[in-house]
Amino acid sequence: MVKMNKLLKEQLESAFKGIRISIPEDTRMIIHAKKEQVLTILKFIQNKAYDHLALISCVDWIEEGEFELVYIMSSYLQGNNKYTGKEKVNITLKTRITRKNPEFVTVISVFENAEPYEREIHELFGINFKGHPRLTPLLLEREYEIPPFRKDFDTRKYVEQVFDTIPFVEDKKE
Amino acid sequence: MDRNKITKWLKSPGKMSNKYSLWAIYFCTGCGIIEIPPVITSRWDAERFGVIPVATPRQANLFMITGYVSVKTLRAIIRTYEQMPEPKYTVGFGSCPINGGMYWDSYNTIKHLDKYIPVDGWIAGCMPRPEAVFVAVTHLWTLIDKGMANGYVKYREKYTLYRNNQEKVLGELDWQPLYPTDGKDE
């Protein structure tokens, strides 16, 4: 499996320029890529039998003024008796977009199950995914001026302004 | 039947029947619901106390809010509470419905449940043990005996205030008021 890892690394490095690949453990591979390359890299990895998009996540690097999108992929084929569970490899693809204009392309064309993940990120981080069929609210009930998972969203202030201003029913009567 | 209670039964049979047949709506909120399956199954057997879980709010008269209440859940809680027939009793289970608990600065969690629906009793703790449910039930018996578990009466009397609070958090409510609200719809 280690060999296969290195093989994939060589293939990726020859196919795409300007990406950084690190292998911190035998079962993990982290790819740092530019945002223009993401779709093609995802397709490339999908063709290498990593056909399961496990998660899309987002990190707010407020001091650097950037959002980091994280795509985690694994393979169903590794569950075969060819490989044991220990050798399961997760591929993490990281890319950064600017915080001022948070826009990115949707990856639904590659992985269809990206839809709810992108809706969630749109709701909690305010990133606009171009080409997404429905970026409607998924989890939240209220509307927020700043999306609540951004680092500049002050939860304490928000609680004081919204939940603490609602009066107790007993107090109001007496 | 306990012979000492015969006079009580004869004096107020309705109250005594309410006491010993608290049917709890099986409404799962937050992490506290994990304590309810042991309570209702054979080890702690809640049916000794007349508490059984039921499927619909129309059959229930005990509502246990088990755990943190997000804004979205509050909508479901209010709708469930309003569908329950009177007399109905509410018990907040765990520290989160009391004052937010560990979610005291969360952007999406209701801090004080009793601002939105009346609550007759609280079980403190994170998490409370299953035994605490029975302590709460026996306390609720005492309250019912003394006529102090009157949350549903309060809800009827102060419905305008409750509805105002609900609308402040949830925005426009898409259902009709349960009771006439004074001075609002005129």
Show unreliable segments of chain B. Answer: none
Give the CA-based shape of chain A. elongated
User: Main β-sheet of chain A, in a few words?
Assistant: 5 strands, mixed
What fraction of residues of chain A sit in β-strands? 15-25%
Total of helices of chain A: 5
The amount of beta strand of chain B, in percent, is: 5-15%
Count of discrete domains of chain B: 1
Number of strands of chain B: 5
Radius of gyration of chain A: 20 Å
User: Termini separation of chain A (Å)?
Assistant: 72 Å
Rg of chain B (CA only): 17 Å
CATH class of chain B: Alpha Beta
Q: What tags apply to this protein structure?
A:
heterodimer, A: alpha/beta, five-stranded mixed sheet, two-stranded parallel ribbon, 5 helices, 28% helix, elongated, B: 186 residues, alpha/beta, Rossmann fold, three-stranded parallel sheet, 39% helix
